[in-house]
Amino acid sequence: MSSYSNLSKRSIVPLHSSVQQIQRCRAPQNPGIPQLPDLSDIQGDIFYVFPKVAEQFMFFSIKDVSAFKKNLGSFTPTSSINVSEILEKINQAKETARNNRTPLCQVDTSLSQIAFSRAGLNFLGVKELTKDTNFDKGPMKLDRQSLGDNASWEKVFEDGSSHGVFTIAANSTLNCQKKALEIENAFKSSIIILHRENGQVLPNHVEHFGFRDGISQPAIKGLAAPHPGQTVVDPGIIIMGCTGDPIAGRPAWTKYGSMMVFRKLAQDVPGFNNYLASHSEDWRKILPQANLTTPAEGSAWFGARCFGRWKSGAPIQLAPYRDDPALGEDNERNNNFDYTVPRLSEPNEYFCPFNAHIRKTAPRNLLNYRPNKQELADSSIVRAGIPYGPQLTPTCPQNAERGLLFVCYQSSIKGGFLLQTQWALDSSFPVVGTSIKDHGQDPILGVAPAAPGFKPQSFVTSKGGEYFFVPAISTIKKWASATGC
Ligand code: HEM
């Protein structure tokens, strides 16, 4: 039984509230429960996701391998078990505040994780392949074309020169900066900091277009308590070397690791808002029974069709005409849907277009067509990104840069992130019949279709990114103590 009842708004809630409970479940004699990984050995952002208000990604290159190994030996990243304990503390703080009717006492957190690029592993002397072909072949820039990235990338990503990245998260910007400084000092003799990205959670956990994010996440079998409708996946879909890992025969040092995809995605918020306004009358043709009364309602409806959810997070499949904030907030209901419509036997877009962002990246049910439920579960990713840049307000400059520091974890980049990106960019995806139909690209990740009198536009521009391997904590310790790798 979980004791995380006050975290019900969190999409990923640990199933176990103590180390002892987890150890009991890990026992091989426990029937019906897949053998669980060792949570004290897995870095903390991978599947429980760091609770955070601020986050820094510190990209570095190694200047001195032996000094780096020495520094690494003294570095203790936050483990998954640490994260579940912190979540329990937050849960208790909320309970105390509620019972005593006192203001919530903030739980101070400073969390960190380290990950390496292929170039970083090679530099450390770890030349063996992880068997993830996208990671092993080199930097993300080699996949630039298939990712649909046409704009110029920032130098650090263009160069593909990072050896690794520290992910530092905290409950305040100040604590995040303090932790970043502590790590910087600890590794002063061995690394060069190439680049930093700073993110900040926006009020109500929205991304910059104003839509609540982080609702649909996979729950790992045996480790997370699934909310109704949440996809439950084998641990190996996210954590290497566990049940369900699609890639066999990996080297032992990859066990309990994961692949981290980092993308810097700039968002054109004024452009997106204008685009929605230019479509504010579309409901009259598409869903006249919505009976909307103002252009603002029409724009909001069109925006919801782009995402498949309203700004509150309410899925349009369940709330087709107007936003329903109570539904959006309620994690027991906001993910409990698929795209079937009673009395319609074929996959259809009666309420949600095939190309809405959440339907492109996870089409949920396609009856007899592909991808089926199992394929969908197998392509799951854990999303752990954070917005960057100032929120657009009446006083904030329209042209300030803002966007999403997108992060996702999976055991296979090709089966997770790349597959979903291909789906998003493929106009004919999903296949919903015997002949190919053009549904258009994902309006968030692809090029949005042109409204009359407008050029086709993209509201999200990639500034680059990188693939990283997040090793198990025991692997880090081994590398730290090895004289040669
Ligand atoms: C700036 C870029 C992006 C924005 C603004 C954005 C925003 C959102 C929002 C608001 C949701 C709905 C909330 C939720 O269901 O959690 C969502 C869901 C999702 N997004 Fe994105 N996203 C972006 C990029 C990406 C990328 C690059 C991918 C992967 C290739 C991705 C994959 C997903 C997935 C898998 C879901 C959940 C779908 C489901 O299970 O129903 N997103 N995104």
UniProtKB/TrEMBL annotation:
Family classification: Belongs to the DyP-type peroxidase family.
Q: Which positions make up the signal peptide?
A: none
Pfam families cross-referenced by the UniProt entry: DyP_N
Q: Which cofactor does it need?
A: heme b
- InterPro entries, alphabetized: Dimeric_a/b-barrel, DyP_N, Dyp_peroxidase
Q: One MF term in GO for this entry?
A: metal ion binding
An example Gene Ontology CC term for this record: cytosol
The protein's name: DyP dimeric alpha+beta barrel domain-containing protein
Show the PROSITE patterns listed in the entry. DYP_PEROXIDASE
Entries under PANTHER family matching the protein: DEFERROCHELATASE (PTHR30521:SF4), DEFERROCHELATASE/PEROXIDASE (PTHR30521)
Keyword check for Iron: yes
What is the originating organism of this protein?
Answer: Sphagnurus paluster
Q: Give all residue intervals belonging to the DyP dimeric alpha+beta barrel domain.
A: 41-201
Presence of the UniProt keyword Ribonucleoprotein in the record: no
| Key words, A-Z | Heme, Iron, Metal-binding, Oxidoreductase, Peroxidase
